[in-house]
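Researcher: Can you fold this with N,N,N-trimethyl-histidine in place?
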Amino acid sequence: MTAPLARPLGDDPVLVEILAGLRGSPKTLPPKLFYDAAGAELFERICELDEYYLTRTELTILRRHVGEIAALAGPRAALVEYGSGAGVKVRLLLDAMEDPAAYVPIDISREQLARVASELAAEYRTVPILPVCADYTAPVVIPDLPQRARRVAFFPGSTIGNFHPPEATAFLRRVRRTLGRDGLLILGVDRRKDAATLHAAYDDAQGVTAAFNRNMLARLNREYGADFDLARFRHRAVWNDEASRVEMHLVSTADQCVHVAGQTFHFARGETLWTESSYKYDRQRLDALASGAGFSVARLWTDEGERFWVAALEV
Ligand code: AVJ
């Protein structure tokens, strides 16, 4: 009997990205790999942590200003959400909007997307729910939307922070093209703040963020036949003030070799695998991001601690 032929290298674009990242210097992996079913659950636990102020703060801002946001969107708007996750935030918007024409949740986490979409379809019987399972770091095809509906994009959670500035601009340009002439983007942005608060948010006392970070390696073991020894990688979060970002790394605690899809990668002791950047914005950086993508900042809402922004960007 002949051995089954392995899937040809290059056939899976995510694997291509993984191998390219592991070959780089420094070694990197893309943060979208966090969100398999286990990772999506760990992220929901992060959102409950005392140290992780982002989700809670954004929800406070949304609750307080959702009437103004819905009024800005106007009646019969079609809402497109990039990274719909657990679907908590969008309920606030759908409840406040006047007669939404459609809701398009886009998410990479297939199981969570299916579950949330069917829950929403049951709850919002008059709103067509049109889920799209996609990696929105690449161009996304949006389903047909009611012709005259204004398109409103929702990109909450400070996920824009995961993009390096040039990619953030490129992403927002694609969003702007998807929205068309009178488009509106409601964007969640984490603000620059003191290093101690930021560090704690990405290295919590309970170690949930460390588990979330290491889950990326567990996932490569599960799905790509890798053999990472999770005990030999340590979670590290660092604030890079000059670049205005928190970086998450997995630091190799030993000199070791790891195999992924039949290829060997050497890690020196102390070498880091960079898994995420979370850029933090001030007004100047936000204006530059918006204008670089052809948007302008129409409204900004913040919390009492001035930790987070919900921004309305207009074309
Ligand atoms: C979902 C990308 C906004 O960067 O804060 C949480 C992910 N990483 N803890 C963030 C995350 C570590 C989160 N985003």
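Model: Folded with N,N,N-trimethyl-histidine in place. The chain has nine helices and 13 strands.
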